[in-house]
Design goal:
signal, mainly beta, 20-stranded parallel beta sheet, 5% helix, repeat, 440 residues, SCF-Subunits/Alg-Epimerases, globular
């Protein structure tokens, strides 16, 4: 469809950028007659195409390098690249974000987003966050802004690399899916889900490597599933943490299942401010989480660390049916301050733990009031990191099926949650064909 056809459908009165807003075309298109707007055939830039789009439309982008921040604020629009590695939104280290989603039901698919000073893809219901207002220490502190959730989103087959905060960032958003994506060079984390309760969000089948942290879930819980991902070759693999910087304390009730969390002590990664290194899974002030049937291996400091976040105790976390191998220690519980944990348990066979004997003294289930024992161990000294701009290029990634021929994606109001009875401990080769870092 050429531009004049799109213009006729939308009732535009002049050329593309003349200022006739999409609101003038509201109600002119019958339900179920979404169109495909092609870039650059029908609109010269992605942003121009998005400004034309109405609910149900597909913005389909041809290969090229695009220097813009794309803001998707119309509900139920699909943004898709024709070729994942050749449709590149490059922020040139001059733009905060590559893609900003602030409307429900939006899908972002099959493209690469890189070189932004903050985020590759940001999905949020927060007006302040969408405006790119940074908070303390690289996150978002939205102050007195009321909590407003974006409701339903999809990020699929996206490569996000060399971004100054997060590769894919869902903040104050619910009912979403992040899947089949690849993140690297995230100076804070590759994938981040924050300030949602209940989240009703699924993070599945992704590869996060060469980030400061592979996945971070802050104040995120309630039907929050992190399943079947490869978090390898970062400085820290995965965290579930509570943080006063964001609302909806504490972090609780997330499921971390069937993931490979391995070899998270890479030196050629961005160095996060808190200096974490060599840790597979970290639970910092989080409660009620299930860490289930993961393979956690080859992490130089510890496979899993449980600790208290400031005044927030970790309570009722269950670490079960996992495979631990080749870690500095397998499981370590440490509470250096006055805040202690309770009701936490481990049931994953014979383990090297600190304090010793957790596999027998804290076997699941335990009483909710049972005080969790704690200890300390010598941690390896982290090596200096590298600038996020110098992280290695991503390897080849799979394409969105029939990207050019498929119509717009219908994002469900609530995602399908995984059946945990079918989740197994993954092989050490999980998603290895999509990763550049080889782990034991």
């Amino acid at each position: 469809m050429r531009f004049r056809a799109v213009a006729a459908i939308l009732g535009l009165c002049t050329v593309l950028l003349s200022g006739c807003g999409s609101s003038s075309a509201e109600g002119h298109r019958p339900d179920g007659t979404g169109v495909t707007i092609r870039v650059p055939a029908d609109a010269p830039t992605i942003s121009a195409a998005v400004s034309l789009a109405q609910s149900g439309d597909l913005v389909l982008v041809a290969p090229g390098e695009y220097h813009e921040t794309v803001k998707l604020d119309t509900p139920h629009v699909t943004l898709r690249g024709e070729v994942r590695e050749k449709v590149v939104l490059d922020g040139q280290l001059q733009r905060d974000n590559g893609v900003v989603v602030s409307a429900p039901g939006v899908a972002v698919e099959n493209l690469t987003v890189r070189n932004n000073t903050q985020n590759g893809v940001l999905v949020t219901g927060s007006v302040k966050a969408a405006a790119g207002l940074p908070g303390r220490d690289g996150g978002y502190d939205t102050g007195d802004e009321p909590i407003r959730f974006l409701d339903s989103f999809l990020v699929s087959h996206v490569t996000a690399t060399r971004n100054g905060l997060y590769g894919i960032y869902a903040f104050s958003a619910q009912n979403g899916v992040i899947e089949q994506s690849y993140t690297s060079g995230g100076a804070d984390s590759g994938i981040y889900v924050g300030q949602c309760k209940p989240c009703r969000t699924v993070v599945r089948d992704n590869v996060a490597e060469l980030n400061a942290v592979g996945y971070e879930g802050t104040n995120a819980g309630g039907e929050m599933y992190v399943v079947g991902n490869r978090f390898s070759g970062n400085r820290v693999g995965l965290t579930a943490d509570s943080d006063h910087q964001e609302k909806l304390l504490p972090q609780q009730d997330a499921v971390v299942a069937g993931n490979l969390v391995a070899g998270n002590q890479q030196a050629a990664t961005p160095q996060q401010a808190d200096g974490g290194w060599g840790i597979g899974v970290g639970i910092d002030g989080g409660s009620g989480n299930q860490v289930l049937r993961n393979r956690i291996s080859g992490n130089a400091n510890a496979g899993l660390v449980l600790t208290a976040g400031q005044d927030l105790p970790p309570q009722g976390n269950r670490i079960t049916e996992g495979v631990f191998a080749g870690n500095g220690i397998d499981v370590g519980w440490t509470f250096p301050g006055t805040t202690k944990g309770s009701g936490n348990c481990v049931d994953s066979g014979e383990l090297h733990t600190i304090p010793e004997g957790l596999a027998t003294s804290a076997t699941c289930p335990v009483a909710a009031t049972a005080v969790s024992p704690a200890g300390t161990w010598p941690a390896p000294k982290p090596p200096p990191g590298i600038p996020f701009t110098e992280v290695a290029e991503p390897p080849a990634q799979p394409q969105f099926p029939d990207a050019s021929a498929a119509g717009p994606t219908q994002v469900p109001a609530v995602p399908a949650f995984p059946d945990l009875t079918k989740v197994t401990v993954p092989a050490a080769t999980l998603l290895a064909d999509r990763a550049s870092v080889r782990v034991p």
